Amino acid sequence: MFEAIIGLCLLSDPALCRDMLVPGYEAGTRAACERLLADSQSQSIPRPDPGPKVRFSSGEPRCAPAGPVASFGEVAPGVFVHRGMISDAATGNAGDVSNVGFVIGESVVAVIDSGGSRQVAESIYRAVRRQTSLPIGYVILTHMHPDHVLGASVFAEAGARVIGHAGLPRALQDRQEAYLANFGRLIGAAGFLGTEVVLPDSVVDQTAELDLGNRVLALQAWPDAHSGTDLTVGDPRTGILFAGDLLFDEHAPALDGSALGWRDVLARLQALPYQKIVPGHGGPLLDWPQAAAPLQDYLDVLIDDTRAAIARGDTLGQAAETVAQSQSDHWALFELFNPRNATVAYTELEWE
Fold it and tell me: By three-state DSSP, how is residue 283 classified?
């Protein structure tokens, strides 16, 4: 398989370069790929827009053998899931630290989350193309965090509509500079080249349906919980729910919204008519609602310990060091995320 690529290099350090996939020009031979490029000469090949603080040079598109393909498993007919690494973003993983899925209908494909960099999203795109030539009609972003949204530009360039929670546009606008700077630092300039923030084309403020062609996905926006922008994606045909980071498995939970709200939403999720769930991290496919128990226990302890710390008169700094420590053996990356969770919970609960 061959594909179109463009070489990108940082102007500030021309030795830092990478080849960026140009979606839509895949072919079985180099000659066929080159014919597709020739036929598109009158069109403008998209160039990334990483913001005013990053400058790079780009070459002309050319055809090359297809690059790395993300590993996906078919967990049910037409439903594919990729398990991200249980890790923080780093040079060695390019931001491939969250779960991603795609669902194939009779007319179009929907991709659910997009990875933590354009480089990761390119490997996801190739995986979709290995399974089907149907158009990618939608990329659905389950919430605002960079490991889930920073690859969306690949699918937008392929013609997909970007879908998210009603609060997602404002959240991304407010955070895009910090997300790009922080993830770029963790991943490294070369691997992060071409990554940009893409705002949704359509938003969901309550519920919505997406028809993929004889297959309808059910989207539901949730109030403040893991974040303020959580959106779930259900496939009633297979009984599978994509929960985004409303559910964590193995990977320590990360709170960026409301501890009380998250506990309430988790209870409501358990009442939904799904038998399997894809968490934002871990799994990647778990029995539902049984898989809620570890996170429910963690949230109960987080809330109870925080209330106890406040009642004792502990400072925020003291609470961050002590709250929920009894859970430390149950979660990977606990020391990275739990102090943040305790801080958010303390700030929420101190005025009860």
Answer: coil
